[in-house]
Write a structure and sequence with these properties.
By secondary structure, this protein is an alpha/beta fold. The protein contains ten helices and 15 strands. It folds into two domains: 128 residues, 3-Layer(aba) Sandwich (Rossmann fold); 195 residues, Dihydrodipicolinate Reductase, domain 2. 45% of the residues are buried. The structure holds nicotinamide-adenine-dinucleotide.
């Protein structure tokens, strides 16, 4: 039976434990904070899924440190992701490591080392941009290949969501300064927390053959508030290798949330939306005056993670299979975050250097 260890029994740790159990996997959920394990058993898991699943082993990381796992999932704050992944590779490397988004803080510390050590250990490292694996995204890819919309003129994405919902889900936190969320440099703020927009933009750019983002011009609204220091709005203008320009906007102030992408083509357009209604993702492809395809894909919150976890199962069967979640894609998203911060602070356009060496971890 597939053995999964999840580090971090917080919000995402519970989601991914539940998704793993749905596939019948044996789950060990670890946290350094005994209160988090207690909350998992008594509050989070039962509130979300009806009752706690007693087959999930709850433990401290030390208790299982010598044990072998097929998959390790890292669902802790971003500034711990890379050090924890490196520690797993130095111990008993699993077949797969799934690191939650964002991969790391904007300095990308340790990323090159992680890539090298993973290669040496034969471990596949993935980054959890789950929206790449949801049903409506897969449908969008199929529709685009079967119903071409002509050369792409521009691509726009936005993930704009007030973070009150996140704090409602974490009532034990006092506010942004209490967690990484309140610090851009730790992987929080709008750029880190809502990096799904940059990432899904890159995904559709790749599908359309636009190449990688080469230039970024950004304006950030950076605030300092009760000890926290974060970007609350990030507006990016980008250009790709093929010369196509587009926009990406992320913020932690918009209510109700907008999670949307539009690919504009010469002959039509594609629109992609998460939570178009509370229980639907929406996909729509229009070929001007010829064809309209639209589907509201019914889903629940657990469905947001189902495709991602099923994908892990497929990679265990076929370790060399293609994956849209590979470490390289997660690193590409971090390169854009880093460039956006520099662009805004220095007031200039930044060329993205994907080959720049990343600093080592402390
Ligand atoms: N893909 C998504 O849609 C999605 C949704 C929620 C969160 N996330 C991401 O997941 C990560 C965690 O977010 P969260 O909301 O679950 O945070 P959280 O604060 O709810 O939980 C994090 C947990 O990690 C624990 N932890 C810290 N260091 C640890 C260590 N070394 N070993 C084991 N446990 C440790 C903390 O005690 C805490 O309980 C973030 O990177 C966040 O962006 C992604």
């Amino acid at each position: 039976m597939t053995q999964v260890k999840i580090l971090g029994a917080g919000s995402i740790g519970n989601h991914l434990a539940h998704a793993s159990r749905k596939l019948g996997w044996q789950v060990t959920l670890c946290d350094i904070d005994p209160a988090a394990l207690d909350r998992t058993r008594k509050d989070i898991y039962p509130a979300r899924y009806g009752s706690f699943d007693e087959s999930i082993a709850l433990s401290s990381p030390e208790e299982v440190s010598g044990q072998a796992f097929d998959i390790v999932i890292i669902g802790t704050p971003p500034d711990s992701h890379v050090p924890l992944a490196l520690a797993e590779l130095e111990g008993r490397p699993p077949k797969l490591i799934l690191i939650e988004k964002p991969l790391c803080p904007p300095d990308l510390a340790g990323c090159d080392r992680l890539a090298e050590q993973a290669r040496a250990a034969g471990t596949r490292v993935l980054v959890g941009y789950n929206h790449r694996m949801t049903e409506h995204t897969l449908l969008a890819g199929r529709w685009l290949s079967e119903n071409p919309i002509g050369p792409v003129t521009t691509l726009r994405a936005r993930f704009r969501e007030h973070w009150g919902g996140i704090f409602d889900a974490h009532p034990w936190l006092d506010g942004p300064a209490d967690t990484y969320l309140g610090f851009t440099r730790k992987g929080g703020g709008a750029l880190g927390e809502h990096s799904h927009a940059i990432n899904i933009w890159q995904y559709f750019a790749e599908l359309a053959g636009l190449g990688r983002i080469t230039e970024v011009t950004a304006l950030l609204d950076e605030v300092e508030n009760r000890g926290a220091a974060y970007d609350r709005i990030a507006q990016l203008s980008v250009r790709t290798e093929s010369g196509v320009i587009g926009t990406i906007v992320q913020d932690v102030v918009t209510r109700p949330a907008q999670k949307w992408l539009r690919m504009e083509g010469r002959d039509g357009y594609l629109e992609w939306e998460v939570n178009a209604t509370p229980s639907h993702d929406r996909i729509c492809l229009i070929r001007h005056e010829r064809q309209t395809l639209e589907e509201m894909v019914e889903k629940s919150r657990p469905d947001d993670f189902r495709g991602e976890i099923e994908h892990l199962g497929e990679l265990l069967e076929n370790p060399d299979g293609k994956s849209p979640l590979d470490l390289g894609a997660g690193m590409d998203t971090m390169r854009i975050i880093e460039a956006a911060i520099r662009s805004s602070r220095e007031g200039r356009r930044i060329r993205v250097d994907y080959d720049a060496p990343t600093p080592d971890t402390q």
